[in-house]
Design goal:
2 domains; five-stranded parallel sheet; three-stranded antiparallel sheet; globular; D-Maltodextrin-Binding Protein, domain 2; alpha/beta; about 290 residues
């Protein structure tokens, strides 16, 4: 009997391109990680800022820790981060918190570092909408691995070492993948790994490819992962200099939720549309740009 193909959704970063520099005047640098969702919101942000006369530039494709380091160092002015990522990776909070509690906690903690969390979107990477299959939760997955089933995991490289990553996840659920059955790879390679016989993949809950590949999002039934609300985070110094940034960013944030993000990601990843076109079309369709 063929094994079901499974996918479990986590929030991760990616690696490296470079920063644009300002040609004239003082630039506002908008950063992002290297996957579609992050690139889209960065593109939307830059377009909105430029239309309103700001000298905005992109610095995209960074890993999570690298991007945060650049922001704290004053090189990146703002980027869209996930509440759970900052709580666990940068503030080492392991307490179980509701989405609202997590947002308020990380907002307070990062304020001490000169970072301002604006109003969050409704995009939450911790989504529990698994299909009705024989394995629908991470507990089901753990039980199958403990029983000796030879399941293979395609993981992003970052997830292998995160504080909300693979090792703590396995400890929480009481299982461990067999040596050699976990392979780290670039984010973009994970869906192709399913074609090569992998059973489980570390992806993003708002990926349009989940339904296209007929995959199941595993339910985090022991609530290991915090909520991951996608939120614009800006340096306090930058916001003090340009207070008009707040309503612009929060207007965009108010337009984003899981369903919307799935649709936008699908246009890029499945339909092959240019990321810039998708972003521009969206901000205009929502009346954010006239």
């Amino acid at each position: 009997m063929a094994r079901s193909r499974l996918v479990t959704a986590f929030t991760l970063g990616a690696l490296s391109l470079g920063l644009c520099t300002a040609a004239l005047g003082q630039a506002i640098v908008v950063g992002s990680k290297g996957f579609t969702e992050q690139l889209l919101v960065a593109e939307m942000t830059v377009e909105l800022l430029r239309v309103r006369g700001f000298n905005a530039h992109k610095g995209t494709g960074f890993a999570t820790t690298g991007l945060r380091t650049l922001q704290e160092g004053g090189i990146i002015d703002l980027y869209w981060e996930y509440t759970g990522t900052s709580l666990t990776t940068f503030n080492h909070v392991t307490e179980k918190l509701s989405p609202d509690e997590g947002y308020e906690r990380v907002k307070a903690l990062d304020a001490q570092r000169g970072l301002v969390w604006l109003a969050p979107s409704k995009v939450n990477m911790r989504r529990a909408d698994a299909a009705a299959r024989r394995i629908s939760s991470i507990s089901d997955l753990a039980a199958r691995v403990r029983e000796g089933e030879n399941l293979k995991l395609a993981s992003t490289l970052e997830f292998l070492n995160r504080t909300d990553g693979l090792k703590p996840l396995q400890r929480t659920y009481g299982f461990e993948f067999t040596l050699g059955n976990v392979v780290g790879m670039d984010t973009g390679a994970i869906y192709n790994a399913f074609r090569r016989g992998f059973d489980v993949g570390v992806v993003f809950a708002t990926d349009g490819q989940i339904s296209a590949f007929d995959l199941t999002v595993l339910r985090d039934d022991q609530a290991f992962f915090p909520s991951y609300l996608l939120t614009p985070v800006i340096r306090e110094a930058t916001l003090n200099r340009y207070p008009a940034l707040k309503p612009i960013l929060e207007a965009l944030s108010a337009q984003l939720d899981n369903e919307t993000m799935v649709a936008l990601n699908s246009q890029v990843d499945l339909e092959g549309r240019k990321l810039e076109d998708v972003a521009s079309e969206f901000v205009r369709s929502r009346g954010l740009v006239e």
